[in-house]
Structures are given as structure tokens and as C-alpha cells.
Design brief:
Transcription Regulator spoIIAA, 15 strands, 7-stranded mixed β-sheet, Rossmann fold, 4Fe-4S, about 20% strand, Chitinase A, domain 3
């Protein structure tokens, strides 16, 4: 009956836990138990009194994603467990390649690791001179999902202390230190347009300037490592599923690596707030990807399988937007009427 109630969205998991849970440790917290480590020999013994090891292993052994609710049992009774988020170590599943060091006119190797050092504390090294005032530019092509992804990436860049280029910077002839090309695969000759956009920034890099080049979006997912072969000046190739993990991946770039992040992965909830382009209208993602595989469409290849966001996360984001004075919210998804069908149980 509890699962039926949740499936019909008559009540959320937090409220249900407070109403029917017999667990004294978690009931008043809406059933929250915090992060659970899934690695081999993980130390989760502190959870034994809440959900015993056998039941816990059954849950962790089930293929789940954020929003899923599974039921298991133990000597303590039945357990309803909701997965609210999945933290993936993107630096482990991405591919890194150490960039070859260049030499200056005197034959001395040039260390490029300082370009992002002012923003990324992990990149700070003794003897490396950092540039403290870094500015970025984002070029967005394609659909509203790409616009929303760009807003999320901007939020992360600003959270790192990197600021957008201003009119004053442009008038003074200031050049960007970091550029993001958020690409689209739908248009004709999409790949050629991307290489054309990269051109001026790649030229700056070949001439010895420090500029970080990031190619994100659907063309990045489609081309992957081929982008590095055709445009070796690119620092980071970023599929759409990693748009909210840009900051993590920039750590490897700051250490002198080229990074390709296009592996299939669960999409984590944002830890930083997007920098929205409007103060009255906002985009809110409710589902990512598509399972339809239409013969004429590349979206399932570049955006991956369907992944619905937990309803609680959507409601929380919309509620916050209303409190900030937003008047219009557009719910986004490649296949938005498929919302919930990928969840356990289906919504």
C-alpha cells in the first residue's frame, strides 16, 4: 500500500516515513540515513541498527538510480529505501591524457598547470605562478536543454571564482582565459561548425597563450576522443551527462591533462546553483535522455537513456524559484511525457 501511495504521488517519501516508519533513528528525519559507500569492504556498520547488512547488500546489489524506491526485508521487518542521489567519481571513469609540454624560444619547458590554479585549490603547487583574475565565455548552440546545461556550467565556473566576460573587458581588449563551446548535433554539418568555432582559440594556444578550451554537449559526446585528434588544443571533452561535474573535471585539466568524459553515467543533482539568464523565467530539467531510438534521431546516442529526476528534487527547485520571484518555469526533457517510466516503481 505504501508503494502504491508513492507511485501515485499522493505523498512524498519524507512525509510517508514520518507517518508510518517504526525506525526511531530516522523517522523524524524523513527516513534519511545519509550517504552509503558501495565499494568492496566498505565500512557501513553504523547502519546495522537501521537496515541490517543482508538487507543493505540486497539494496546495493539492485541496479538503481536517483528517485528509485526498492523494498527489502530483514529480521527488523520491511524496509522501503529511496535512492535520492548517486555520487560517481567522474575523474575515475573519464579518460585522461598528459599533455605534451612545449618549449619556449630558449628551449625551456613551459608549465601550463598554472592557468586554472587561481580557481582550483587542488592545482596549487609551489613555484607555479597563478593568474588570479580568470574570465570565461560560453557559446551555446541548439536546444533549451543546452541552454539549461550552460546555466549549470556557468554556476560551477562562478563558484570557482571564474567570472564572465564583461563589456568593459571587451572594450579593453581583454581575452578570455576559458571558453566553453556547448554544442548541438542536430543541425547539418554540426561537427564542422564546432571545429570552426574552436579555430581562433586553438590559434591563440598555438601562439603560446594560456587559454582553456572545453567542448561540451552533444557533438562532444558523439565525437569523444576524435575531437582531441582533430583539435589537439582542446583541453576537455564533456558529454551532456557531466555538465554539472565540470568543476571536478577541471582539476585534471589544471594538472596538465587533456580529459574526455563521455562514459555513460548517472546524472547527479547539482551541488551548485545555475546562473540563470533570466530573473523571471527559468528552465527546470525533469528527465534526461530518451529510449525511443527513432531512426532519424541522434538524441538517444548523445543524451543517453532516460533518467527521471526525483520528484522531490523537482518540487524543491521549483519552490525555491517561486520564493526568488520567478513567474514562469518551463519543465524540460528530451521525452518529457516519459517521466517516471524508468523509475522503480514506475510513476
Amino acid at each position: 500500500q505504501a508503494l502504491t501511495t508513492l507511485r501515485s504521488s499522493q505523498i512524498n517519501f519524507d512525509e510517508l516515513a514520518k507517518q508510518i516508519s517504526n525506525c526511531m533513528e530516522t523517522r523524524e528525519k524523513g527516513g534519511e540515513i545519509g550517504w552509503v559507500t558501495t565499494s568492496i569492504n566498505a565500512d557501513n556498520e553504523h547502519l546495522d541498527l537501521i537496515i541490517p547488512e543482508k538487507a543493505r547488500d540486497e539494496v546495493l546489489g539492485t541496479t538503481t538510480k536517483p528517485g528509485d524506491i526498492v523494498m527489502t526485508s530483514s529480521e527488523r521487518g520491511y524496509h522501503l529505501v529511496q535512492i535520492t542521489d548517486v555520487m560517481v567519481d567522474v575523474r575515475r571513469i573519464s579518460k585522461t591524457k598528459l599533455r605534451k609540454k612545449k618549449k619556449d624560444e630558449n628551449g625551456v619547458e613551459i608549465d601550463r598547470r598554472g592557468i586554472l590554479g587561481g580557481a582550483l585549490a587542488a592545482a596549487e603547487q609551489e613555484g607555479v605562478e597563478f593568474k588570479s583574475d580568470l574570465i570565461y565565455k560560453i557559446e551555446t548552440m541548439g536546444c533549451q536543454m543546452n541552454i539549461a546545461d550552460s546555466e549549470r556550467m556557468e554556476g560551477q565556473l562562478q563558484n570557482l571564482g571564474i567570472r564572465p566576460m564583461s563589456y568593459e573587458d571587451k572594450n579593453k581588449g581583454r581575452k578570455v582565459d576559458l571558453v566553453v563551446l556547448n554544442t548541438c548535433s542536430i543541425r547539418d554539418h554540426a561537427e564542422q561548425k564546432v571545429y570552426s568555432y574552436i579555430g581562433p582559440y586553438a590559434k591563440r594556444k598555438r601562439e603560446g597563450e594560456d587559454v582553456t578550451i572545453i567542448v561540451a554537449g552533444c557533438v562532444a559526446q558523439q565525437e569523444g576522443e576524435n575531437l582531441l585528434r582533430r583539435a589537439p588544443e582542446v583541453d576537455l571533452v564533456l558529454g551532456p551527462q557531466y555538465a554539472n561535474r565540470l568543476g571536478d573535471l577541471l582539476e585534471d585539466v589544471a594538472n596538465g591533462n587533456q580529459v574526455v568524459a563521455t562514459e555513460a553515467s548517472h546524472i547527479m543533482e547539482d551541488s551548485t546553483k545555475p546562473r540563470r539568464q533570466s530573473t523571471t523565467a527559468a528552465w527546470v530539467n525533469v528527465i534526461y535522455g530518451c529510449n525511443e531510438r527513432c531512426t532519424y534521431c541522434i538524441v538517444p546516442t548523445t543524451r543517453g537513456v532516460e533518467q527521471s529526476r526525483p520528484m522531490e528534487s523537482i518540487v524543491e527547485e521549483v519552490t525555491e524559484l517561486i520564493s526568488q520571484g520567478y513567474k514562469e518555469v518551463t519543465l524540460l526533457g528530451q521525452n518529457i511525457d516519459a517521466y517516471g517510466r524508468d523509475m522503480i516503481p514506475k510513476r
